[in-house]
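[recover] target loaded
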């Protein structure tokens, strides 16, 4: 569906445009007029739009996604710069040692502790 937007300076020109569109075969269901003064449109019997028809959801969604992506990148950069949770590489190496301990626990005798198993593997 195509949307055509017209800016009309006066209510009379708006009335003329809607009459021309009606003569061209456009029904009121497809014709929505946005105005600051809704009561003047009702007085002239011009079909006005509701609140949902005045929103531009697709454009606003793209703008919101772009702003969210920008803030996400800035936040990730700040986390990498300041490292509030410590050095991530040390955390990852200790996780790998713990995973190695649990993976090789069946191969080692049961009387060894996890710390001894990590030393045995290393």
């Amino acid at each position: 569906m195509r949307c055509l937007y017209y800016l009309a300076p006066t209510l009379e020109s708006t009335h003329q445009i809607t009459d021309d569109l009606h003569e061209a075969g456009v029904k009121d269901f497809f014709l929505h007029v946005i105005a600051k003064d809704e009561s003047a449109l009702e007085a002239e019997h011009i079909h006005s739009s509701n609140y949902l028809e005045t929103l531009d959801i697709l454009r606003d969604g793209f703008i919101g996604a772009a702003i969210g992506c920008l803030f996400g990148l800035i936040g990730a950069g700040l986390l990498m710069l300041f490292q509030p949770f410590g050095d991530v590489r040390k955390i990852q190496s200790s996780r790998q040692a713990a995973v190695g301990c649990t993976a090789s626990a069946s191969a080692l005798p049961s009387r060894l502790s996890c710390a001894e198993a990590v030393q045995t593997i290393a």
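[recover] notes: Helices lie at 11-23, 38-43, 51-54, 57-82, 88-103, 114-121.
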